[in-house]
Amino acid sequence: MLNYIWLGLVIVAVVLGGINGKIENVTKAAIDAAGNSVTIAIGLVGVMALWLGIMKIAEQSGLMSLLARAIAPVMRRLFPEVPPDHPAMGSMLMNIAANMLGLSNAATPLGLKAMEDLEKLNPTPGVATNAMCLFLTINTSGLQLIPASMISLMASAGSKEPTAIIGTAVASTFVALVAGVTAAKLLEGMKIFSVSRVVEGGEKS
Amino acid sequence: MIAHAISLVSIWAIPVFLLFIPLYGACRKVKVYECFVEGAKEGFQVGIRIIPYLVAIMVAVGMLRGAGAIDILARWLDPILRWVGLPAEILPLAIMRPLSGSGSYGIVAELVKVHGPDSFLARLAATAYGSTETTFYVLAVYFGAVGIKKTRYAVITGLLADVVSLFAAVFICRLVFAH
Question: If I label A86, which of A10, A156, A184, B84 is the partner at 20 to 30 A Cα–Cα?
Fold first, then answer.
């Protein structure tokens, strides 16, 4: 599916850029974005190393499996394919917690760590597991207790009540979370999305 | 009160983590320094591994923004979305949000500047921004980092959550911030 969406984005950009008379901007944006993404990736290396180092200590000391066991009642129901004391449970929880607190610097490294832990359980490398899809659904639904960037934006614009949006944002992100998790649970059982079909058909990617 | 407590937690969370985990490790007789370095070694590979996926998604989104496509799409989709009850001003944000974090931040900042930070539209935009994530960025980078090519239904559920959160934001803001 990402194949079609990616192609669609590029086609729309070039066609509309042409119509708009902004085709030079399209060229410049493509080159700039390519350069910027390397800057972002390299910039991530340091934070990534920091959190992977800390997480290694948490794993070696048994803290991760302790954490995983503590939250097992909820996580086991959401992720039945993942063994309850597997490190993936701990790293997924750490990523979700970092997102909830609005700590995006920590969230990405912890999330990538969680994906690596989940990949170790994947019997069909290259194909997403149910657990990965659900984890990313929770992640992209943006569960967050403090929309920190928005609060500071409102405050700097001179709002009388910059925190007024906390309640509404939490409420709507929660609605989205419930919808996403429900949809993921419904879709994972459907034939067209089954792992064996995806592997054989080579389609629906 | 609650906001203050939450922001206090988010300020202290990282220092507490950085202290607590090595301390716990030391109590459990883990060689914390060696262990940290061992784990940190992988940081470089992960950073490098996500580059192709990051380039792919950022170039496509960058081209779209450079073309001014978001505004055109918003104009085309306007009648449909007006019909389902979404304010027209929020449309560019709705299209941009799953694609680009910085792009959608810019749109919210513009709405705040034009309409004032305590206006209904600014609050709705901030709510909509704060209640979802940059779906395509997350999917591309997280799946890319572990070499997943077949994403099955993850794009559908991710986008569904975006659409639901947009409608929920409009509905909830109408309830809470009714003029």
Answer: A184
pLDDT (tens digit per residue) in B49-99: 899 999 999 999 999 999 998 888 888 888 887 787 788 889 999 999 999
Shared domain check, A100 and A137: yes
Model confidence, pTM: 0.89
Q: Residue A195: its chain B contacts at CB < 8 A?
A: 152
Residue of chain A with shortest Cα separation from B117 = A159
Q: Using H for helix, E for strand and C for coil, what is the string for A40-77?
A: HHHHHHHHHHHHHHHHHHHHHCCHHHHHHHHCHHHHHH
Are A123 and A177 in the same domain?
yes
**What residues make up the domain containing A94?**
63-205
* Whole-complex ipTM: 0.89
Pair A53, A80 in one domain: no
Of the residues A17, A35, A61, the one at which a domain ends = A61
Domain count for chain A, please give it: 2
A64 vs A58: CA distance, rounded Å: 6
User: What is the residue whose two structure tokens read 């997280």?
Assistant: B142
Residue B47 distance to chain A (closest CA, Å):
5
